[in-house]
Amino acid sequence: MPLFGKRNQEAPPEVVADPPWWVRRSVLINVDPVGLPGELVLPADVQAVAVFAHGSGSSRTSPRNLQVAERLHADRIGTLLFDLLTESEAEDRERAFDIALLADRLEAVVRWVWRWPGVGHLPVALFGASTGAAAALVTATRIREIAAVVSRGGRPDLAGEALERLTAPTLLIVGELDLEVLELNRAAQRRILGETNLEVVSGATHLFEEEGALERVADLAAGWFTTHLAGARSGRPSLSDLL
Questions:
Q1: Eight-state DSSP code of residue 213
Q2: How many CB atoms lie within 10 A of CB 117?
Q3: Choice between 116 and 68, residue whose per-residue pLDDT is larger
Q4: Measured distance CA(38)–CA(60) in Å, rounded
Q5: Cα 3 from Cα 190, distance rounded (Å)
Q6: Among 233, 199, 208, which Cα is nearest to 130's?
Q7: Which residues pair with 241 in a beta bridge?
Q8: Quick one: DSSP state of residue 10?
Q9: How far apart are CA 122 and CA 76, in angstroms?
Q10: pTM of the model
């Protein structure tokens, strides 16, 4: 697990935005030895926070993830989209598929979210796409308080043995025409220990570019999170866990 330097132990400042947002801010998350830019959005009366992990070749500006995030805001779920890799790191394909590294980063970012004023009492969920989905699944086995996970067109097979330790409620969403990834998800679902469901979006390919496909993904994710985050206890760890 990444170690936090002193500067990373400090809680980020509260930022008040105009309604309907409580917080809407570009942030820089220090995960030694790099800084990861992100976009944090917390709706008024926020009930939970979903941290997004994008796939290889993507970033915090992924239009597909942004569309899903907007749908979650309507259900009072805050979102954090951030870059798992720096620009130079993203050019290295080996790093892009280094699931252990991506999970280390994602774990550190989840703990950063817990230090944001007024958010530490909220349940946290993970939304992963492609390789980011594998990182999300691994992270959920490291942080047992993760309330739920959603994978969009993910590669859960890359999570390896972590699948057999996964207890967080997990929704796998795959396009009907994304045949290879669909089979990988079916095989992964059989290995997952905890509650899991596989939703196949009719007529959709890997990027869900077909009319109405991404809207269906967003609705499925919102429904899964709303169901499993309602009444979930905060995942905020003790101070000793954060240091």
A1: H
A2: 11
A3: 68
A4: 6
A5: 34
A6: 208
A7: none
A8: S
A9: 12
A10: 0.88
